[in-house]
Design brief:
Among the domains are: 49 residues, Helicase, Ruva Protein, domain 3 (Orthogonal Bundle), CATH 1.10.8; 38 residues, no CATH class. Helix 4 crosses helix 9 and helix 7 packs across helix 8. Helices cover 52% and strands 15% of the residues. The protein is built from 10 helices and 5 strands. The strands form 2 sheets. The protein has a 3-stranded antiparallel beta sheet with strand order 1-2-5. A two-stranded antiparallel sheet has the order 3-4. The chain is of the alpha+beta class. A hairpin with a 2-residue loop joins strand 3 and strand 4.
Length: 218
């Protein structure tokens, strides 16, 4: 069902949750405000949003090495206190996020707002020049390009990825749910992915040249 913007706004004001989370909660509960509020509370989203402005300077640098040692990840996740940083729930979250990054080679940024403008401009240039748009009216082309760019930027952002252990939620929803459970602000700050041999050119043997050189030596 279509969810009226007025209803989304009302739920946001009563729970403090984000607009998109409120819209999803209402969609999942057929527009029932009471059920939507409970949905947000179960997910820990409502309480997480209220903590989002609090300083998170503690945390953990976690790692994940994929089987075979060909892919490795370091990720920094912040919370508010050292006590929480030492806890099992927080450690589990950091491990899951590191594993998520290893499984998503296309992801380069934590959130879409971190993507540099020149990357956005580059994507717009690519999409605008595609052949399938040539015959479409200008206004329609613009809407299609905007939609495609938004989709592409989400592909590059960690928090927008479906969680590998539960595709019914995004990584951002996982973080919010854990924050609501733990009772502290949690922020994914940065990450680095290492792929074995990335950026290196493997030396290829020139068999013909090798044979020729051996003949010359004789």
């Amino acid at each position: 069902m279509a969810i009226p913007a007025k209803l989304v706004k009302q739920l946001r004001e009563s729970t403090g949750a984000g607009m998109m989370d409120c819209k999803k909660a209402l969609s999942e509960t057929d527009g029932d405000m009471t059920k939507a509020t409970l949905w947000l509370r179960r997910k820990g989203i409502a309480s997480a949003e209220k903590k989002a402005d609090r300083i998170a300077a503690e945390g953990l640098v976690g790692s994940y090495i994929h089987t075979g040692g060909r892919v490795g990840v370091l990720v920094e996740v912040n919370c508010e206190t050292d006590f929480v940083a030492r806890g099992k729930a927080f450690h589990s979250l950091v491990h899951d996020i590191a594993m998520q990054i290893a499984a998503c080679p296309q992801v380069e940024y934590v959130r879409t707002s971190d993507i540099p403008q020149h990357i956005i401009d580059q994507e717009k240039s690519i999409e605008s020049g595609k052949d399938d748009l040539a015959s479409k009216p200008e206004a329609l082309r613009e809407r299609i390009v905007v939609g495609r760019i938004a989709k592409r930027l989400k592909e590059l952002a960690l928090l927008d990825q479906p969680f590998i252990k539960d595709s019914g939620m995004t990584v951002e929803e996982l973080v919010k749910q854990t924050a609501g459970t733990i009772g502290e602000n949690i922020q994914v700050r940065r990450f680095t992915r290492f792929t074995l041999g990335e950026g290196m050119k493997a030396k290829k043997a020139d068999f013909a040249a090798e044979v020729a050189s051996m003949g010359a030596a004789d």
